[in-house]
Amino acid sequence: MAFYRLSRTARSLRHRHSSLSAAHTYFHLHPPSADSCRQSCHLFQVSGTFHSENKFSNDCNSLRSIGAYHRLLQYSSFSTAPSDEKREESKISKVSECDRSWIDVYLPEKVRPYAQLARLDKPIGTWLLAWPCMWSITMAAAPESLPDIKMMMLFGTGALLLRGAGCTINDLLDQDIDTKVARTRSRPIASGVLSPFRGICFLGFQLLLGLEILLQLNNYSRVLGASSLLLVFSYPLMKRLTYWPQAYLGLTFNWGALLGWAAVRGNLDLAVVIPLYASGVFWTLVYDTIYAHQDKEDDMRVGVKSTALRFGDSTKVWISGFGAACISSLALSGHNANLEWPYYVFLAAGSTQLAWQIFTVDLSSRADCNRKFVSNKWFGAIICTGILFGRVLS
């Protein structure tokens, strides 16, 4: 007899669980109104407690559309809905999973903060720093000759190291700002994963490797290369002083247009390298202004300046002018370097790519601004290919 009563009790509990689960699903799809909630309280009181299986089932059917049952479900131990905290934790976990890069997958845990500090997982900065060097080295090659491959490899490695050093300097000087901006507060120094002292030590290590590369160049290039460090160290301060930090970045990032020619020729042909250098500065004003539109709200909030804030709604007019100046300067430099007709074909293709960026970018969309910014690696590749064919056929 006792076993029979125990069996009936178990069946009753299982029935309650299924009824509560069905009602939980219903109320998630059809939340009750205020009137139904008032009606439900009255009905709930009249219905009494659920002592028998049949009475519980009938009352459950009658209460499907009322709010009291919804309140009951919130406190029921049978509810299987995840809590708000668990849903939030799941959302954060998914975001973190999307943010993972090859650094998090392949590098040892102790090395990861240093790789992130040097932005090794975001190579676009290295490409943008390297392309003016490659333009200059290729343009400095002898007529009907290929560029010096060893020199290009040295400059490519140097671009990787100098870009990493620049990012380290930027994070050391901007740690007070980075903590206030959502996009940057997870950086190693701003988040406290690395101390400023460790960041300075890592900076010294990168500069030491860069010096090793610089010492392999001729004396003229060593002096010219060392002089760029003033620009590298002072650039992060410009956003506090002027609305034109992108122009200052252009002077810094395109120093390789001067250095590449000097490393090959041992001097500077100003008729060639000055227009080439200027083209790089105008190019930087285009892509970094687009990039700056990602952070314009945060920049206004923390009090830093940029060309995105300076130009505002007139941004596309300004960067169209910079784009035209970039292409004109590249044409003048190629003409003075006696490059042949293939160069101008590729220059026209590069103009099309740059125009596509300027006229299609949605400056209110962070994702589109970043997409157009990253596409500049292809502009650099197009111009370099044009210089190569223009030099080989000259």
UniProtKB/TrEMBL annotation:
Pathway: Cofactor biosynthesis; ubiquinone biosynthesis
Swiss-Prot/TrEMBL cofactor(s): Mg(2+)
Keywords in alphabetical order: Endoplasmic reticulum, Isoprene biosynthesis, Magnesium, Membrane, Mitochondrion, Mitochondrion inner membrane, Transferase, Transmembrane, Transmembrane helix, Ubiquinone biosynthesis
Membrane topology: Multi-pass membrane protein
EC number(s) stated in the UniProt entry for this protein: 2.5.1.39
GO cellular-component term (any): endoplasmic reticulum membrane
Protein name per its UniProtKB record: 4-hydroxybenzoate polyprenyltransferase, mitochondrial
Chain segments annotated as transmembrane: 124-142, 154-173, 193-214, 247-264, 270-291, 341-361, 373-393
Top-level taxon: Eukaryota
Main location per the UniProt record: endoplasmic reticulum
GO molecular function terms noted in the UniProt entry: 4-hydroxybenzoate geranyltransferase activity; 4-hydroxybenzoate polyprenyltransferase activity
GO biological process assignments: isoprenoid biosynthetic process; ubiquinone biosynthetic process
Classification via Pfam families: UbiA
Family per similarity comment: Belongs to the UbiA prenyltransferase family.
Database matches in Gene3D superfamilies: UbiA prenyltransferase (1.10.357.140)
Catalytic activity: an all-trans-polyprenyl diphosphate + 4-hydroxybenzoate = a 4-hydroxy-3-(all-trans-polyprenyl)benzoate + diphosphate; 4-hydroxybenzoate + (2E)-geranyl diphosphate = 3-geranyl-4-hydroxybenzoate + diphosphate
Gene it is expressed from: PPT1
Localization (cell): Endoplasmic reticulum membrane; Mitochondrion inner membrane
Statement: the UniProt record of this protein carries the keyword DNA-binding: no
Its job: Prenyltransferase involved in the biosynthesis of shikonin, a naphthoquinone secondary metabolite. Could accept only geranyl diphosphate and not dimethylallyl diphosphate, farnesyl diphosphate, or geranylgeranyl diphosphate as substrate.
Database matches in InterPro entries: HB_polyprenyltransferase-like, Prenyltransferase, UbiA_prenyltransferase, UbiA_prenylTrfase_CS, UbiA_sf
